[in-house]
Design a protein that fits this description.
- With about 140 residues, this protein is α+β, with helices and mostly antiparallel strands.
- The protein has one domain.
- It has helices at about 25-40, 55-60, 110-120; strands at about 10-15, 40-50, 65, 75-80, 85-95, 100-110.
- A four-stranded antiparallel β-sheet has the order 3-4-5-6, with no helix packed on it.
- The longest helix is centred in the N-terminal third of the chain and has 14 residues, at about 25-40.
Length: about 140
């Protein structure tokens, strides 16, 4: 993401399921956006699906747990850090008769305004924000 650029090669660039924002340094996120912009053909489109800061503030739970069909218990813990710029996540998978697994990951959370500003700084114009993939207004759904 930080290095891949194919100038004017694509009609569409897609980043789904909050796969944007994992780099510790925001400048890396900016590089990714610039690479996406440069890789689009004129008139091309970019779709970024992320959980907005506004939605995260409404729905973020400090801890949750679920039992999967195979009996695995998944415990998720998260906390907001750095004045609501990063969310730190810990996922523990407790698996019957197998070794337990621990995953840690952090993600930068952007408000709609912040993401729009970053996209425009990367060269994008006509930036539209939606609350979900069905086109609901941003801020009208828990994710946006």
């Amino acid at each position: 993401m930080r290095e891949f650029v194919r100038p004017a090669a694509f009609d569409l660039v897609i980043s789904m399921l909050t796969s944007f924002g994992y780099f510790e340094d925001r400048e890396d996120d900016r590089t990714v956006l610039r690479n996406m912009f440069v890789s689009l053909k004129p008139g091309g489109a970019c779709v970024i699906d992320v959980k907005g800061k506004e939605g995260a503030a409404r729905t973020l739970q400090p801890a949750s747990a679920e039992v999967r069909p195979d009996g695995t218990i998944v415990v998720e813990r998260c906390r907001v850090d750095n004045d609501w710029t990063r969310v730190r996540n810990e996922v523990i998978a407790i698996r019957p008769s197998r070794e337990n697994r621990l995953f840690n990951f952090d993600v930068t959370v952007y408000s709609g305004r912040e993401l729009r500003e970053e996209l425009e700084a990367a060269g994008f114009r006509d930036v539209w924000l939606y609350g979900d993939l069905d086109g609901r207004a941003y801020g009208s759904t828990p994710s946006g």
